[in-house]
Design a protein that fits this description.
This protein is mainly β and about 350 residues long. It is built from 1 helix and 25 strands. The chain has 3 domains: about 40 residues, no CATH class; about 220 residues, Sandwich (Jelly Rolls); about 80 residues. It has a 7-stranded antiparallel β-sheet with strand order 5-6-9-14-11-12-16, with no helix packed on it. A 6-stranded antiparallel β-sheet has the order 4-7-8-18-10-13, with no helix packed on it. The radius of gyration is 23 Å and the shape is globular.
Length: about 350
């Protein structure tokens, strides 16, 4: 059997002959998909904690209810809302179709049936610019990416969006949960073209914000599936997901992959190594084990992982002898590359210890 392949094909172009296998033009040749030769996006996942394995700050604690949530049910995953109703969110142990054991869950406690112009509810991960510099967004050579995620929720049309660090360049696009898919695990795959406009940070600041929206007012609504100016969370006309009390949403197994050959196909899901993922998360937030300080001196400690920037330091808990109730707040030293040190701002009267957190989140 012979095929007439397209002359002068573009990289990533697909050829589907009648009665034959599918071919993709990549790397200067036509490659057959199948027999172990499926062409996909790159395997490296740019999302941190994509399987929600790490939750240093809150574990599996239910957070809320509140209409103005700004909390992390899992490391690097910020639940953010401003609305008249109330929400609860948490990490839960429920197996996914890929075999992961964690996901995050959002529950609507009190509904907001008519979101005001500036109201919204979302999950967001801010991805550091150094992790996505090779997307080359903001120039003519901007590259395509593939987003893949697991989602469970009521029937409706919901929006996922990407935004730059300045919050003035957005790509919102919808995905639909049909009546037959309502409240069951689904996998969503979305192809997103590279943005040739806007300004995209490639430093240790925010490079890309990945956002899953459950409802937004007109202030944050825009056109679907196109790059546009503004901070757009939702496509005009999408479902108000917080309009029904008792609605439950779950997110799991999230991947964002560079797709330089424009295949539109995500790679097979890879469960992250938990120890490596913890190290990646600790670049942004780390809780120390208790460190001890003798009496009458300045205490000091050191975080295990280098930080994105010098962190804000807070005392989580204090262990001290009788008559001593609190330690002075620690100060932060420099040396983000080697693991930030911290120290007591004053000597204290007796031996004691503390659990300390360093926050370098975006």
């Amino acid at each position: 059997m012979s095929f007439d392949f397209t002359n002068s094909p573009n990289n990533g172009q697909v050829f589907s002959p009648t009665g034959g296998p599918i071919y993709v033009y990549t790397g200067g040749v036509w490659r057959m998909q199948g027999s172990g030769q499926v062409v996909t996006a790159e395997a490296r996942n740019r999302v941190v904690n994509p399987a929600f394995q790490i939750s240093q700050e809150n574990g599996n604690t239910a957070l809320g209810p509140g209409g103005g949530l700004a909390t992390f049910p899992a490391d690097q995953w910020l639940g953010s809302s401003s609305m008249g109703g109330t929400l609860t969110q948490q990490r839960v142990q429920v197996a996914t179709p890929n075999g992961s054991i964690n996901r995050i869950r959002l529950t609507v406690n009190t509904a907001d049936t008519a979101l005001a112009a500036g109201e919204y509810a979302q999950w967001i991960q801010y991805i550091e610019g150094t992790r996505v510099a090779d997307f080359r967004w903001g120039i003519a050579q901007a590259r395509q990416v593939v987003l893949r995620f697991g989602f469970k929720g009521p029937a409706g049309t919901y929006t996922v969006s990407l935004v730059n660090g300045a919050l003035n360049r957005s790509y919102p696009t919808n995905f639909t949960i049909s009546a037959g898919q309502a409240n069951v695990d689904t996998e969503q795959v979305i192809v997103i073209p590279g943005d040739i406009g806007g300004s995209w940070d490639t430093s240790t600041a925010t490079g890309v914000g990945l956002r899953f929206n459950f409802g937004a007012g007109t202030t944050y609504s825009g056109t679907g599936s196109v790059w546009q100016a503004g901070n757009i969370l939702s496509v005009t006309g999408s479902t108000n997901g917080v309009a029904t009390a008792g609605a439950v949403y779950e997110l799991f197994d999230v991947g964002l992959y560079l797709d330089p050959n424009a295949t539109g196909v995500p790679p097979p899901w890879q469960m992250p190594d938990e120890a490596e993922e913890l190290r990646a998360c600790m670049r942004y937030y780390e809780r120390t084990a208790s460190y001890a300080m003798p009496s009458g001196v300045y205490g000091w400690g050191k975080f295990l992982a280098p930080k994105r920037v010098n962190p804000a330091i807070t005392v989580i808990s204090v262990q001290a002898g009788s008559g001593y109730t609190a330690l002075p707040l620690p100060g932060a030293a420099s040396d983000t590359a080697g693991g930030t040190t911290f120290y007591q701002t004053a000597a204290h009267s007796q031996a004691s210890g503390a659990v300390v957190a360093g926050n370098s989140r975006m």
